[in-house]
Specification:
Elements: E1 2-7, E2 10-13, E3 18-26, E4 34-39, E5 46-51, E6 58-60, E7 68-73, E8 78-83, E9 92-98, E10 108-113
Parallel strand pairs: 2-10
Antiparallel strand pairs: 1-3, 3-8, 4-5, 4-9, 5-6, 7-8, 9-10
């Protein structure tokens, strides 16, 4: 069993930055590849970024490439998403997940004003 708790969301102006965190507890965090997804109102949940458990290699959705950075600190059991140059279309609830499992956080709201 893994519990995931996101934090760091909020309201920011376009062009601003936020850093999301996802604190994991339960089973060993380091054995999971982790990901961030987001869901905007009226839209389906979409992939944002992922990071491998094996070598911390990363992959991003085209819409966030060059602006967002995913990272992890295994000793702290924490996943991060640094979001820069935010746009109004980044507004969504952001979720972290242990990829390939049913473990999801409850989500944190990010709102970007124009």
């Amino acid at each position: 069993q893994v519990q995931l708790v996101e934090s760091g969301g909020g309201l920011v102006q376009a062009g601003g930055s936020l850093r999301l965190s996802c604190a994991a507890s339960g089973r060993t965090f380091s054995v999971y590849s982790m990901g961030w997804f987001r869901q905007a109102p009226g839209k389906e949940r979409e992939f944002v970024a992922r990071i491998s458990w094996r070598d911390s290699s990363t992959h991003y959705a085209d819409s966030v490439k060059g602006r967002f950075t995913i990272s992890r600190h295994n000793a702290k059991n924490t996943l991060y998403l640094q979001m820069n140059s935010l746009k109004p279309e980044d507004t969504a609830v952001y979720y972290c997940t242990a990829l390939g499992t049913a473990y999801w956080g409850q989500g944190t709201q990010v709102t970007v004003s124009s």
